[in-house]
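Expect chain and fold; thus:
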Amino acid sequence: MNIPDIKEFRFKDTSFANLMNKRIYNVLLVATKYDSFILEDDGRIDEQIFNEYMSLNLRYPPRFTQVVTEAEALVELETNHYELIIQMPNMDDLDIFSTARLAKAKHADIPFVVLTPFSREVSKRLSQEDLSSVDYVFSWLGNPDLLLAIIKLIEDAMNAEHDTESVGVQTILLVEDSVRFYSSALPTLFKIVLEESKNFSKEALNDHQQMLRMRGRPKVMLARTYEEAVDIYKKYGNNILGIVSDMSYLHDGEKDMLAGYNLAKWIKQQDRFVPVVFTSSEISNKVYADELDCSFIDKNSKSFPLDLRKQIINNFGFGDFVIIDPATNEEICHIRNLKELQKKIFEIPTESLVYHMSRNHFSRFFYSRAIFPIAEWLKKLDTSDFHNVEDARQVIYDAIIKYRRIKNSGIVAVFDKDRFDEFSNFVRIGEGSIGGKGRSIAFMDNIVKDHVELNEYANTLVRIPRTVVLCTDIFDEFMETNDLYPIALSDKSDDEILRYFLKASLPERLIEDFMAFLDVVKAPIAVRSSSLLEDSHYQPFAGVYSTYMIPSLDDKYETLRFMTKAIKAVYASVFYKDSKTYMVATQNLIDQEKMAVVLQETVGTRYDNHFYPTLSGVARSLNFYPLGNEKAEEGIANIVLGLGKYIVDGGVSLRFSPYHPNNIVQLSTLDFALRDTQRFFYALDLHDTKKEFSTNDGFNLLKLSIKDAEKDNSIRYIASTYEPVDQIIYDGYYETGRKIISFTNILQNDIFPLTEILKQTLKIGQEGMGRAVEIEFAADLNKDGSGCFYLLQIRPIVQNKELSSEDFSKISLDKSILYSSNVLGHGISNDVYDIVYVKTKDFNAGNNPKIAVEIDEINRRFLNEDKTYILVGPGRWGSSDPWLGIPVKWSQISNARVLVEIGLNNYNIEPSQGTHFFQNLTSFGVGYFSINNYLKDDCIFDEDFLNSQPSVYETEYIRHIRFSQPTVIKIDGKKKIGVVLKPE
């Protein structure tokens, strides 16, 4: 047999929420008032059942409705909905089962159970009755556990087929025909199963998951004849955890004293390792159990319940997994849980491993704990399938690792310092909210879990960094315990507020949790804000608060000191002047803002005394500056070498559409590549750790040059090489020549599947959020080209509602100064009063250099006045060839809010699409219009209107108009339509 590669096997985490969907919510109890009183134990039947459910971590206890007469029962069944009928018949009645017959005649699908105190007389009476309308008869001796067992037995029967087929839930089969005995054995059996399952559910990562995990417990099924047992085994044989069987019961309609032996013999032919426990009142039957290598319990033993518990725990995979030496039967070690098995699997002696694996003990260990994916995988394997035992050992280890990765993803787990390890993905400390950023990271973790296709690329892993969130209740406690609100809400400077916060103390109980976190996370840590309002669907709060990065130091206590300071500094940033101003602008109350803090493993590699990733970036699912055959809905990305803060701070990045990675303006000409690509990058300083915390969250970041990255040997996969002698840029890294950060090998040569991952994540993210999204990411590549792509954050793109509902076709063109169906950018502006335009009458391209000088002078005035304007001119703005346009540099038009290129009858130049200043247009959100009245009917430049307005400044070539009221600029980047309206 060829052993499948565990790496290619898709473990799918079990969806426990889909199990046990059929429940008993309402029980109709038909009994005399006296019997009801006895059953209730002074009127507490609901309370007893409720308490029993709660003690076992079970939900949905049923409600009991009590009636006395048959007539009342039939009325209730017609009036209300019931899932179970329990009758305590009066044995003095002549026809004690008439209620059952009448109820079944009209409600055949409702199980009917008879409870009766057992005596020899009762047994005799029952043996003479027609019980075809009764599903089960039980002996009632006042034990409330029996009611729980009856309800669970019937619920298990209702759900068994679906739950076993869908995820592999296991079943325990009890074969017994004695009413008195199974009325005693079933409560014991259920108690064992429910208590053990409650213990194993603690492996779940939060309270909600624990409750759901209980649904994966083994089912218990009851057979009362040989034929019934065979039918159940045939249906659920692949999901049998174990069998408890009497020795004698009906077989072919007659009492067979060895029915249990014959059943077990037949079952062992199907699967020789199915554990069978015999129960018999005849001690002589033990010989038959020994023959089949089965366990035996004497029914007459006073310790029967304890014996049954012991045999079930030892044989059915419950309790500790006891590893034994098969030669001596001595215990070698106990394994309590999955984590212990992971640690000890390589310590188990070879003989013991073969023994336990060949008998399906490993798969049974996983089955009993509702860890179905690994159990299913291992059950199909045998040690004989492997060339050597060490391969089998490695398969078990790899399966555990893969399962734990899946189990930990997509879940907001509760931090447990004893359980937190390298497989913990997203964990919270505290009971409050995890904040906006925390929610977005958890959502991305869920995306990665649900979309397995993201991890189908060779040598590439897609995931989120290991994350711990301090919930908002920690913030509340910190603020109140240290009495910080008077300081925080005062008019003190940011530096003073920070100083007070740094002096304050975090709750002491967090120290042990932080140390457990630092034991696992060896990389630097990003301490990020995650306020309630951040990344909101409706408010643009991104980037308002601080994010600090702290190094991982050899002295763990020094790292702890850094981390706690960073947490307090993030808390302080809520109350900085800019934050308060922003709160007012967005009509929020500062004292209502709550801050969670994200502690996130930083992506990257250490290079000497600094740390940074191969690339960081931001991608948006909407591109408001599409060029050529790009489409707005295909999205856009900006990437840099090093830490992503370089993009946030306005550094030069490489801009590309994931669908068109060959269409990059910055690399389209030699001049662009040399001028408009990255020359510097950010890295975390690992050397100078004595710097004091500052309100500047980048206080410990280094701004390094590409030459530094060359020395680090970190840019081999992302650089091209410029040879000045040849005046050529070569794809790839060569020892000589200037290095250009082009990412060519990644974007065009598929060294790393960045474009495909971005296409998928943007599409999935937008579908998941129901609106356009922005994603922050980073990736770190190894020397062999393999690597890991990390999703850092996702947020909605807050779009202007007025613009999204605007119908541009209804705008009256006579109210427009400018109108174009070829625009770039997006948004509405109503604060621009000025238009500067080049006069088109008698325009001569030979004067373009002079015009550039005049525009430079005007732009300087706007710069000094801190105002913006609309700039209109023929040809291409920024063209290096003055005959094709006005040869301005960006610094000469830097305060323009909108750039307009127009075509003239005698000067019809192909528009530049803003390519000469594309990096600046996109970075500063500058709009671009292309207008050619001579080629298109849907373009307007109403120069006559502008000529009729008085000018603020005018020369032979240009005019500057200032309106008393602002113009309104509307640009719909998705439709590529824009308009500038005349002032009202």
Notes: The chain is about 35% helix and 25% strand. Residues 535-542 have pLDDT under 50 and may be disordered.
